[in-house]
Amino acid sequence: MRKWFAGLAAVVLLAVGTAPAEAAEPGGAKVIRVGATQAMDSMNPFLAVRLVSSSIHRWMYGFLTVPDAKTLQPSPDLAESWTTSPDGLTWTFKIRSAKWSDGQPVTAQDAAWTFTKMMTDDGAKTANGPAVENFASVTANGQDLTIKLKTPQASMLDNPVPIMPKHVWEKVGDIAKYEADSYPAVTSGPYIATEHKKDQYVKLKANPEYWRGAPKIDELQVIFYDNPAAAVVGLKKGDIDLIGRLAPPDFEALKGDDNIVQWNTEGRRATYLQVNHGATTSDNKPIGDGHPALKDPRVRQALHLAIDKQKLVDEVQSGLAKPADGSIVPPMYKDFFWQAEGGAKVSFDAARANKILDDAGYQKGADGIRTMPDGSRKLQFRFSIHTDTPIEDKLAEYLTGWFKDLGITLTTKRLDSSKFTEETGTTALFDLAISGWSVNPDPEEVLATHLCSRRPTASGEGGGTESFYCDPQFEKLYQEQQKELDRTKRAAIIKQMQERLYTDAPVIALYYPNNLEGYRKDRIAGITPIPEDRGMLYGGSSYWPFYTVEAVTADAETDSGSNTGLIIGIAAGVLVLAAAGFFVARRRGGVADERE
């Protein structure tokens, strides 16, 4: 559920080895290695908000439902079936007969404990708090899990919360401080985490107790690189087998290698500017040091008008993206996608932007820089981006030039992923920041990141905000779409929510990046994208590609011509983003610190 693109913590693959990886050796283990340019923020699913973390946790844990590989509609996972009451307030899920990786049975009590913990512990709400805000009670009876809601909730079958083993996690003291670094982890999904070295790698082995059957490979390794260029070199050398969510320059660098398949499909994320419009905590206390001018919607509108989005697509994204004229939900989700039309569309118009600022009283001084109407402060903004992410530096260059034409100074502030997440999501020590989100098939979660309740508490806990937004109109629409069970009517309300964000501009959508990935066909024999019809591999919203991935065996002949439906697999051990920050699973950050 949160922000993203390439942010990175220091890295290297020492512990995993630097020699070219073999997908499989005669009689040996079948291992797939995936490169990532975003490191795990936490192995604790209650706390992890980065995209790479969410992806890895999808491979490890079961959920009530998962997106169908063909339609992306909810399909059974740990819940093998479900019923709902006529009033839509009571849902009963039948938990299937399955086992945890330690041999203990999966029960409805595990799910009830997981949800109840999130309802009663602020620390446990960090990653997916909004998913349980509408829950009145959760109980278990045998294998039946009953969830009673406060109001009907249309997204109940798209719950993003991984179910945790009660017998393991109930022993944890303070969830907010628990890193879940005891291995092997106890899981119910396709893979079991067996080793994690901060900022370097995560190793996962196939789970023989998985209810669908063990994956076709033995081990997945996710290797964290400290920059996309190094990851691309690693793919070319054979140190890794797959990498996803590449920035255009790194994707283009893969051309010309007969062993590497370039995978270019429609993406599931939006890139946007986060604006500090006057951040507050969940108890409405001011927080941070954002520039006061950004509280003025006229200033935010002027900034929006000063951005030539098509030029950003053409020259920053090398044409491998689509300009965002409205929706924070990408075009691949046609039912929920919204785009401004006619007079409502904010098009590049520097003259109009300047006039808005002139009329609002932000006058230019002798140095050409505007000041607040009362003359108290110049319009000098910081632009927070990630350290060592060239594409964000390039974006900053364009914005700096355009804003200078408005009489606004923009200074680039480079932060590592951890500091970036802290300053743009908790302490609010920023003015403008690069951001974005990988959106799930049901967009409710990405919309929820703009709710009042997602702001951090006074002590800096909980939250998961994408914008520090708290708007009565947006809140009302959010509640309405929750109650609307008719998909068409609900989609219309969700589009109104996106229009509100577009108009008020706590975030300014820039473009929708293509999903750019690369994999070695001499290592990966097959993999199923999601959706299966020309979908995503590394960046998909399900474990399916990694569950189905197959390694090339030593005695197999590689068909260099076909990339039928096995394509790229982020194969086995993957989950990390590259440059633009990968995977989806909500998280906040920026191009580098991707969230799903």
From TrEMBL:
Give the domain of life: Bacteria
Residue ranges constituting the Solute-binding protein family domain according to the UniProt record? 74-451
Compartmental location: Cell envelope
Which positions make up the signal peptide? 1-23
GO annotation terms (biological process): peptide transport
Family matches, as CDD domains: PBP2_NikA_DppA_OppA_like
Q: Supply the alphabetized keyword list.
A: Membrane, Signal, Transmembrane, Transmembrane helix, Transport
Mind telling me which residue stretches traverse the membrane in this protein? 566-585
Matching entries from InterPro entries are given as: Peptide/Ni-bd, SBP_5, SBP_5_dom
Xref: Pfam families: SBP_bac_5 (PF00496)
User: What is the protein's given name?
Assistant: Extracellular solute-binding protein family 5
